[in-house]
Structure formats: C-alpha cells, structure tokens
Amino acid sequence: MTRHPPHSPPPNLVFIMMDDMGAGDVGCYGSRLLDTPVMDRLATEGVRCTRMYGAPTCSPSRAQVLTGCYAQRVGVPRVVFADDDWGLETEFPTIATHLRAAGYATAAYGKWHVGVRERHRPTRHGFDTYYGPFLQPSQPVVSCWRDEREADREVPCSALTRVLTEEALGFIDTHHASPFFIYLAHPMPHVPIGAEPPFLGRSRAGLYGDVIETLDHGIGQIVDRLRRHGVLDRTVVIVTSDNGPWYQGRTGGLSGRKFETYEGGVRVPFIARGPGIARGQVCEEPLHLMDLLPTALRWAGRPAPPGLDGRDMSRTLAGTAPSPHDVLHLWNVYTPGAVIQGRWKLNLVQQRGEYPRRGEFPHLIDLVEDPEEAYDLSARHPQRVEDLAAQARAFADEMAPYYRKERDRR
Question: Which of 3.90.180.10, 3.40.720.10, 3.40.50.300, 1.10.1370.40 would CATH assign to domain 12-325?
C-alpha cells in the first residue's frame, strides 16, 4: 500500500480520455502534421506508453476504465444506444465509488456512454457531479445534462471541447484544497467533429487536426490551472483515448482501425505525469486501460477489491517493474479477437461491426518485430499457438456465464 508523508494528502487524479484518437495522432507518437505541444511536454515530464490497450469500441472501453474489469464481465460488451434498457449497473463499483469512499471529490464531464437510464447515470456510480451528453452526439448540436437533469438542449458540437474543459477548470477551482478525481471524457475526435476559432482552419491536417489541436489546448488550460493552484506536482495527469481511430486519424503504422482487435483498433496513446511516475521515459510493456482503477487505489493508499481483471501498474509507470499482466484478452462484443502474452499475439478472428473477416486464422504475431501484424509465425511456433489458444478458450469459458446472464436480462 502506498504510504504518504505525515499530513500529506494522496495525489489528485485527472484522467482525460479522447474518443477515437489514434496512436499516431500526437506529436510524441510520430505525428508530422499535428501540433500537440502540451501532450508532448507531458510525455517528456512523465511516461509515454506504447502498448496500452483498450476495447475496439466506445462503451466497452469506458466500462473497463470505470470498473477495472473486462467489459463482458460487467455487462457492457457492445456500444450502448438510446433505446437500450441495459448499461453499467450499480452492482459494479466504479473508480469514482472507491475514490469517493477514500475522501476524494469526484466529477465526470463529457461522453458517458455506458447507459442512459436513471440507474446507469454517473451520479449513481460514485460521481458527485456530472455534465455532458450521455451518448455520442449524432447531430451538429447535442443536449447536455447536469447531474440528472437536462441542462442545455442545443450545445454546438464545435463548442464541446471548450465547454467541458471549462467545467473541469471550475471543479479544480472549487476542490483544489483536498483530493479530487476528474474523469474528462471528450466526445472528439469521434464524428461529428467541429472546432471554434482560433483553431478552426489552423491545422495542417484539416478539420480533424483542428479538433486535436483544440483538445491539446484544453489539456494545457487544465495543467496551467493545476499549476496556478500549486497542486500540479501532487496531481497525476493522464491523457489517453478509448480505442483506435475511425474514418480519419493515424494508427501510427499499426494494422486495423476501430471495431477491430488488430493493434490499430485497440492500441491507444497513453501519457501519464505526476508523483510516483517516471520522468521522460517510454514504457513498452503491455498494459490495459482497466488497470487504472487498481492503480488509482494504490496511489490513494487503498487496497484494490477482489475480482478485478485490471492490475496495479504503478510500479510499471514508475519504471521499476514489468507489466503486471501475464495475458491480455481482446474481445469484440462476445467474439474473442486476440490474446496477448508478452511480445506474442494470437489473432483468432477479426470482426468489423457484425461482419467477421474470414481467412486462415489463427495468426501468431511477434509484436516486437512486427507491430504491423504483417507476418504469421504459426507454423514456426505451433506449441505457442496451442498454448495461447488454450488461454483464449479458458477465458471464453469463464466469460460464458456472464453473457448468458446478460442475454437473459435483455
């Protein structure tokens, strides 16, 4: 358990997650067209992870961040839509639930997307306050809710990044004197995209680039506000994305995109800066977004609850230990897509939406030598294929009662 000096509060946590931002959409990850000085600076002052994984779509990735469990285990295996009566139930405690019990003030801003019914909403899941759209916007304007009431009916999507950043800044102003947790989930660069002056038309990468540079500016405002209140150096700031890019955006040379469990669909940028985190390092260990919950509890000096799939990655981010995972499973809805063990990945099947790619699966990939997943090494390592396939079958058997339960509930 983390020990803090006498009378020293545990670190604050600001977790900023973009929607559909690719692994190659940030300067420090190799972008040549996008100017992201704030994210780049955070990487030089902290850790840049090159093998952070999420789910291939929005809602499952968010469920994993919030609960520290695979999305299939907590009943959010696919994207949630407005007419769905299911979502993340209160029987699954979230990171906010645990941190609020530890004395943190908790806030969620932005795209929620793990359920729209009253029982699924942020304030039922440990957040003291919430502002944003429950679902992904589908029109140029969107309705935003404050806590459990509709607050603003027609917020332009082009203004969302600014509006949500201002909400987070106000929370910092009010709560900087005691530990706080902010979960800022920007709806962009998922479509529909939009930007405001002075960023509109400024990027070398079109409107998509304008959006990324707006997001980078907003992150800079948050960092500056933390510094102004004298709490930056006792705040962990994390910047990431939920999954790979959709129509636009760079995967950083990785194969596949959103909806697929190829690396381009599930490997996301992840930058962390703050107390206990190595400075100016690149972490190449396989990690997962669901590791946030047990890691945050370690930083808060609290034990992780039993039954989590996520692992405490604090020592990995500190540069003193390898990945806490032996195996990682990548699923698309209830289809096992791949299993990862160290440098090795077994692609079982690839699925975009409801349409699997048929072919000669499985493929064994050496991700260190071949991150583009271009060459199948199955014939050269048959025992490794058998071992990884057995891991995947065992995990599918473990998940079977959960998806039967969800099928019956729906």
Answer: 3.40.720.10
